[in-house]
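Researcher: Please generate the 3D structure of the following complex. Treat every line as part of one assembly.
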Amino acid sequence: MPLHSRFEVRCWAFDVCFREMDLFRRNILYRMIGLIVGGIFIYAGVTKVMDPIGFARDIDNYHMLPWPLSVRLAFYLPWLEVFSGVAVLCGLFYRGGLLILNALISIFIIASIVAKARGLDITCGCFGHASKYLSFAWHLVLDFILLAAVAFLWVSDRRTASGALAPQVSRGAEKEL
Amino acid sequence: MKAGAIRQALILITLALLPALGQAVHFRNKVPWQSRLLASEVVSVEQARSWGDSVMWVDARPAQEFESDHVPGAILLNEDSWNELLPQFLGQWSPDNRVVVYCSAQSCNAAAEVARRLREEAHLRDNEGKNCVFVLEGGWEEWLKTRK
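Model: Done. Output below.
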C-alpha cells in the first residue's frame, strides 16, 4: 500500500474515532439531562402523591376548575408525573414521557401566569406545598428551565418510534460509515 | 415518530390511572369530593351571629385590609404572619369559643387554609372534642351585605 494511502486510512480511522467520541459525549449529555429531568418529576410527583388533599387545594387556588374536578386531578396528575418521569429516566416510552412532561409544564406555566394576572395568591409550584415559599418569579424561572430541558431532550432525541434504548452512537456511526 | 410518541403517551396516561384509582378508593371516605369544605365546616353570617358572644371572629385577609375595616372584635390571623399572630390568638381563645374565619371571598381561599391549620396544627377543639372552627360562607363581602 502506498504511503499516502496508509496515511489516508489512518486519518479516516481517527476521524471516525473522534466522531464516535463526540456522539458518545453527546449521548452522555442527553442521558444526564434525562436523569435529572426524570428525577425531578418523580420527586415532584411523589411529594404530591403523599398529600393529594393539599395538592387539590393548590389546584383550587388557581380558581380555574371546580373543586370536584380539582380533587380528582389531584389524585391523578401526580401519578402521571411519576410515570412520565420514570419513562424519561429509564428510556421506556421515552418520547411519550417527554410529550406528557412538555404538556404538563406548558399548561402549568400558562395557568400560573393567568392566575397571577388575575391577582390570585398562588402558593402552588411544581413541588406542590413543598415549594410554597418560593416567589412567583422563582417559580417561573424553574418552570422555564424545566421546559427548556424537556424541549431540548425532545428535539435532540433520535430514537425510533418504539422508544427503545438503541444506542445513538452506533446508529450515528453506522450513518458515518 | 409522532404517532409513536402519542401512542406511548396514551399508554402512560392509562397506566397512571391505575394507582390513582387505587389511591382514590383508599381515601374515598376522607376526601371532600364535592366541595373544598365539608358542610359541617361552613357557617352562614346569620348562624354565626346567633352564637352571640361565644364567637371569635378571625380575619384571614392581609394586614392592610384588616386595618382598613374588619368585623368588630375580629382578630387578625393570616398565613403571612402565622407564627407571630398565632400566639396572640391562642392567648384569647378558650374551648368555649367557636371560631369563625373569614377572608375576601372574591380572591382567596385564605379562610379555609387558616381554618384547616387551626384544626390540624393548633388542634382547636371544643370541650366535647368536636370541631369548633368554621369558615364564613361568602366571606367578608357577605358579612358587609348584612352589616347593620
